[in-house]
């Protein structure tokens, strides 16, 4: 019978190779323990987040806010302000592509970027609420006081052709597209300043009356950002020797 071969000592060092043998079984390197613990913590967080989401989706208690319905401030604001914003995006994109003034180009880019993102948010809400992107009736009726019709808190009325306050007419948009140079820059500033002014009542009404916190937060953000832009545009018009259009 062959003699049993002597097993190597796992704690010994191979003197011939100069390499250390693996650590004892059950003793992981420090970095391995850190990775394992980090992964375990991440797994716990993911499980907790998933459970919380499932619980939130299944709750039907009285403390759950109801889904906004047609005619509500949340739905009306999202529908009307989206349409209002999209005209601003159209004007801003035209000015950005046709102006030679870097200051105008930057302002137009900022306005188009911010308002396009806000439109995406509002249209996303409407989809989640099961509401159409366009109002089924006349705009701004969600702002009407009892007995009133289609006007905001500041008394700014919808025009005969259905334009909300501050929105440019088709003739004004055509004139904007026909201009070049400083004439284009000045007319763009005038139209956009009036456009911003026209959206103030809607944003303020939504902030004051909506029961949906996300809508109130967005409306507050609009009031702050567009208020700053209005001051900027007034200054830019003055620098170019011009004045704002009458409003309302």
From TrEMBL:
DUF305 domain segment(s): 75-237
Disordered, as annotated region: 1-29
Compositionally biased intervals (Basic and acidic residues): 1-10
A Pfam family hit: DUF305
Record key words, sorted: Membrane, Transmembrane, Transmembrane helix
Spans through the membrane: 34-55
Keyword Membrane: yes
The organism's place on the tree of life at top rank: Bacteria
Protein name as catalogued: DUF305 domain-containing protein
């Amino acid at each position: 019978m062959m003699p049993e071969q002597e097993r190597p000592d796992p704690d010994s060092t191979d003197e011939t190779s100069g390499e250390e043998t693996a650590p004892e079984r059950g003793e992981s390197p420090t970095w391995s323990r850190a990775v394992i613990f980090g992964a375990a913590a991440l797994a716990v967080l993911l499980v907790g987040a998933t459970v919380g989401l499932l619980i939130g989706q299944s709750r039907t208690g009285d403390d759950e806010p109801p889904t906004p319905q047609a005619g509500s401030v949340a739905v009306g604001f999202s529908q009307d302000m989206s349409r209002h914003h999209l005209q601003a995006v159209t004007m801003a994109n035209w000015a950005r592509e046709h102006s030679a003034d870097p200051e105008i180009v930057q302002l137009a880019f900022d306005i188009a970027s911010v308002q396009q993102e806000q439109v995406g948010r509002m249209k996303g809400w409407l989809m989640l609420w099961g509401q159409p992107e366009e109002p089924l009736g006349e705009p701004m009726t969600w702002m009407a006081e009892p007995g009133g019709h289609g006007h905001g808190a500041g008394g700014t009325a919808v025009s005969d052709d259905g334009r909300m306050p501050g929105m440019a007419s088709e003739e004004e948009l055509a004139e904007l597209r026909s201009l070049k140079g400083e004439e284009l820059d000045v007319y763009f500033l005038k139209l956009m300043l009036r456009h911003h002014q026209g959206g103030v009542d809607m944003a303020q009404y939504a902030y004051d009356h909506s029961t949906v916190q996300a809508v109130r937060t967005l409306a507050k953000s609009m009031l702050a950002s567009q208020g700053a832009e209005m001051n900027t545009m007034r200054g830019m018009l003055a620098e170019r020797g011009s004045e704002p259009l009458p409003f309302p």
